[in-house]
Amino acid sequence: MEYKVGIEPDRVGVLIGKKGEIKRKIEEATNTKIEVNSKSGVVTIKGESLSDVLTAQNIIKAINYGFSPDKAFKLLDPDYNLHVIDVYNYLKKKDENNLRRVLGRIIGEKGKTRRILEETTNTDISIYRHYVAAIGLFDDILILDEAIRKLIMGLPHRVVYEYLYNARSMRRMGLGGW
Fold first, then answer.
1. Residue pair 73/44 in contact by the 8 Å Cβ criterion
2. How far is 102 from 68, CA to CA, in rounded Å?
3. Any bridge partners for residue 6, and if so which?
4. H/E element, 60
5. Tell me: the pLDDT tens digits for 157-170?
6. How are the residues of the chain apportioned to helix, strand and coil, as percentages rounded to the nearest 5?
7. CA 136: distance to chain centroid?
């Protein structure tokens, strides 16, 4: 089985790692063979098992969306998922200034909003170009996704934080979170 995925030129070095260390770790952990064409940005993943190939693909995608290899390796756990939001898809005005403003809302002053998002949902977040990517458990990602959509829509941070804290409380009581 063979699968191809693209990777940004500035992320190729992270994927390969020092002396090929990261690429080798992915191959060993997923029983796959990975070939990286650094000129075209095409990564070929070969393996016997669809599950192994898809796991390697998700780790590579996570690295491509700005995650460190350590955080991307959380995807070896089958309960963890990679979720990507293309912020451009939600903007009425698709220009650089509006994108920066919305990403700034998601990050918050001195990273406060991002930190609250990660802590209340037990997820890892990467903001890279016009993408917000998350690694976490499915239910946690659902809550995070809704919170990020609220921020993109322009709801006050206070409202989003309240939603997150309420969702977390409901999850702790075993009532879901949304």
1. no
2. 23
3. 42
4. helix 50-64
5. 999 999 999 998 88
6. 60, 20, 20
7. 9
